[in-house]
């Protein structure tokens, strides 16, 4: 920590903030339940995770990971096909691990969230009606029974770090729990459909990667994220982000 020239604000909104101070990340969270889940999940996960340096609620201190993020939503990924395949292999290792002792989202809650968010989008005319209704129809294919596995719950590209072609660590485990394996794969490839083949190759079985369900999760994830993003100061309409993901479904791609 000596000789630190500046503090970097990684992300900050009303609920959480993450600061980087030298080689240490300080996570401040108003909900200690999320931090409890994060610490417990990292201890159980069979993939590389940041070292927990100390915890003094509401602050969690984590060591920085080597390498760089697999990508940033809305930006091209510079990672190699091998690195994307390694991300798929890491997801497979996690999904094959014993279930965590706490539950995950249930179908009824997900269906209610989809109803509520689509209603809000329509009422506030945030997106065109046909864009919402088309994607909602697609999203409903994700709402089917699944065999629960140990999921990260927010396996976006910014949370997967690579060093060359290897996974150096996975961060932000506060949404981890029992869930649908295809949800993790969908979040990982959201906005990067062209990388799905590499992820599937690393995951190890094309039979386990149902493209229709992954497309459904792309739509559901995007529809249910727009309001939160807007209310927390992010732009889901930025190129390559959630609204573009929804538009791609209108083109049938």
What Rg is obtained from the alpha carbons, in whole angstroms?
A: 18 Å
Summarize model confidence as the mean pLDDT: 94
Number of domains: 1
User: Strand portion, in percent?
Assistant: 15-25%
Note the gap between the termini.
Answer: 48 Å
CATH architecture: Alpha-Beta Complex
Q: Would you identify the regions where 5 or more consecutive residues have pLDDT less than 50?
A: none
- Count of separate DSSP helical elements: 8
CATH class: Alpha Beta
The best one-word shape is: globular
Fourth CATH level, the homologous superfamily? Aminoglycoside phosphotransferase (APH), C-terminal lobe
Structural class: alpha+beta
N-to-C series of helices and strands: EEEHEEEHHHEEEEHHHH
At CATH level 3, the topology is Aminoglycoside 3'-phosphotransferase, Chain: A, domain 2
Strand order across the largest sheet: 1-2-3-5-4
Helix content: 40-55%
The description of the largest β-sheet is: 5 strands, antiparallel
According to DSSP, the number of beta strands is: 10
Organism: Streptacidiphilus jiangxiensis
Domain Aminoglycoside phosphotransferase: 41-217
GO molecular function, one term: transferase activity
Keywords: Transferase
Structural commentary:
It is a single chain. With 253 residues, the protein is α+β, with helices and mostly antiparallel strands. The protein has 8 helices and 10 strands. The strands form 3 sheets. Strands 1-2-3-5-4 form a 5-stranded antiparallel sheet. A 3-stranded antiparallel sheet has the order 6-8-9, with helices on one face. α2 packs antiparallel against α5, α2 packs across α6 and α3 packs antiparallel against α4. The mean pLDDT is 94.
């Amino acid at each position: 920590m000596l000789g630190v020239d500046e503090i970097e604000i990684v992300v900050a909104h009303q609920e959480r903030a993450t600061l980087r101070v030298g080689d240490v990340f300080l996570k401040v969270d108003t909900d200690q339940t999320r931090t409890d889940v994060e610490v417990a999940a990292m201890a159980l996960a069979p993939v590389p995770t940041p070292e927990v340096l100390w915890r003094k609620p509401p602050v969690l201190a984590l060591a920085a990971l080597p390498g760089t993020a697999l990508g940033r939503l809305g930006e091209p990924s510079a990672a190699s096909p091998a690195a994307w395949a390694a991300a798929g292999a890491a997801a497979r290792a996690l999904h094959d691990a014993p279930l965590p002792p706490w539950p995950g989202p249930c179908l009824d809650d997900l269906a209610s969230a989809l109803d509520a968010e689509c209603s809000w989008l329509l009422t506030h005319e945030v997106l065109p009606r046909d864009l919402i209704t088309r994607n909602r129809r697609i999203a409903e294919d994700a709402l089917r029974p699944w065999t629960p596995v140990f999921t990260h719950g927010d396996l976006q590209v910014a949370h997967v770090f690579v060093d060359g072609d290897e996974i150096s660590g996975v961060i932000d485990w506060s949404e981890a729990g029992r869930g649908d394996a295809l949800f993790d794969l969908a979040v990982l490839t959201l906005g990067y459909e062209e990388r799905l083949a590499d992820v599937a190759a690393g995951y190890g079985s094309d039979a386990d990667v149902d493209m229709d369900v992954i497309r459904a999760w792309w739509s559901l994830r995007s529809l249910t994220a727009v309001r939160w993003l807007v209310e927390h100061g992010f732009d889901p309409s930025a190129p390559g982000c959630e609204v573009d993901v929804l538009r791609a479904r209108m083109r049938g791609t």
